Amino acid sequence: MAEIVLKDVCKVFEKDQYAVSNFSLHIRDGEFIVFVGPSGCGKSTTLRMIAGLEEITSGELWIGDRLCNYAEPGERDLSMVFQNYALYPQMSVYDNMAFSLSIRKVPKQEIRQRVHETAEMLGISNLLSRRPAALSGGQKQRVAIGSAILRKPKAFLMDEPLSNLDAKLRTHMRVELASLHHKLGTTTIYVTHDQTEAMTLADRIVVMKAGYIQQVATPVELYNRPTNLFVAGFIGSPSMNFLRGKVKKAGDGAAFLTEGGQVLPLPAALGKTLWPQYDNRTLVLGIRPEDLYAFPARNDRLYAAVQGTVTACESLGHEAILHLETSDGELAARVEPGHGAVEDRSATLFLDMENAHFFDGETEQNILYQWRNDA
Ligand SMILES: Nc1ncnc2c1ncn2[C@@H]1O[C@H](COP(=O)(O)OP(=O)(O)O)[C@@H](O)[C@H]1O
Ligand SMILES: [Mg+2]
User: Which residue segment(s) compose the domain that 125 sits in?
Assistant: First the structure.
């Protein structure tokens, strides 16, 4: 097991086209790190540079106490698991799993013990004599993960390992991966474009966009204190709602006047923070679907009422997602089943303003919270 440290790592494929820029990260021994971001943001390239499958243009990569920029992939002692399983079709499951150990000349007896132990842990002991063609997608992926595990590497690198599985199996394997990490405690770097996978698996999440790290934080921190508009919109489902507008003085305090002409009162402390400092600057108010209510239930909270037309009402049984078309665009609200809203009719939603986020309309930075990369 090992720490992995990246210092200002860059990757240029074609002249002046940065696929990854100034990537700095200190991964702790045993940590489960997830790289998340939209397609093309540089997740796989970063992982492949760590694996040694892609040359590092500039910067430093440390694995343990060794500078590894120029180390061969085999010398780095890392196991990689890909989206498309990479099993040898002509070999049995047993031989697939044993392969990496046999080429390292590990004694046969020890190989047998490690294959059986790992197969047991992954619930695939009964499949050892089968060929990959006779396995389901989930079983193939388990074999691929098994092969990675039994090498006992310094770290696991996984690139969208669950993307080829159907939704139910993906959830199941996600839980298995989490408990496996719990058992083995091996440093893991996991790449996904799926924010739910990132949130449920990670000790810390690295959010990337266009080759740049946006924020590194625990799932809870990321959810509660997104450093900019991109992170705020990317993490959470349904996404955070955004309303553009300006802060204005209102009576003794301040209010947020939206571009759609709605006046949303601000709690006293928040009003003091924003006004007059941000007077006349365009801001974006962000509010998560669960902070919109069908009824203003608590009298110790300040709610701002927003009116609109219900465009859709998705019932999930234990909750419903309401979509409300307002003068500021569509808002999504996660409400309790007895919400009373009816499609195509008008409705009022109540925003819990204590939980609102505010972003600078130009820089898109969170103005109440700034994250710094101290890696
Ligand atoms: N071998 C390559 N040659 C040229 N450009 C590449 C190559 N691999 C990736 N890229 C580019 O680098 C950027 C990041 O790609 P990638 O790391 O695969 O993104 P992600 O895994 O986040 O979807 C993209 O713009 C992609 O087109
Ligand atoms: Mg990728």
Answer: 4-234
Q: What is the DSSP string of 279-290?
A: BT--EEEEE-GG
Residues sharing a CB contact under 8 Å with residue 328, sequence separation 6 or more, in sequence order: 243, 244, 245, 258, 259, 260, 262, 306
Two structure tokens written together for 356: 């609102």
Centroid of ligand 1 to alpha carbon of 79 (angstroms) = 21
| Nearest atom, ligand 1, residue 14 CA | 4
State the residue for tokens 């494929």: 13
- N- to C-terminal Cα distance for the chain? 20
The answer to whether the CB of 287 falls within 8 A of the CB of 356 is: yes
User: Does the C-beta of 45 come closer than 6 Å to ligand 1?
Assistant: yes
Model confidence pLDDT, tens digit, residues 114-162:
999 999 988 899 999 999 999 998 899 899 999 999 989 999 999 999 9
- Among the candidates 234, 269, 296, a domain finishes at 234
Instruction: Give the nearest ligand 1 atom to 160 CA.
Output: 21
* Residue count (the chain): 375
Return the number of other C-beta atoms located less than 10 Å from residue 344's C-beta.
9
Please work out whether the CB of residue 192 comes within 6 Å of at least one atom of ligand 1. Answer: no
CA of 41 to the centre of ligand 1 (A): 8
Cβ-defined contacts of 217-225 (< 8 Å, 24+): 217/371, 223/199, 225/366, 225/369, 225/371
Cα three-residue angle 36-41-43, rounded to 5 degrees? 55
**Average pLDDT of the residues in 162-174:** 88
* Distance between Cα 37 and ligand 2 center (Å): 10
Q: Do 78 and 20 share a structural domain?
A: yes
Considering the entire predicted model, what is its pTM? Answer: 0.94
CA angle 240, 245, 246 (to 5 degrees): 130
- Supply the CATH number for residue 295's domain: 2.40.50.140
**Class of residue 130 by CB neighbours under 10 A (exposed 0-12, middle 13-18, buried 19+):** middle
- 56 CA → ligand 1 middle, Å: 14
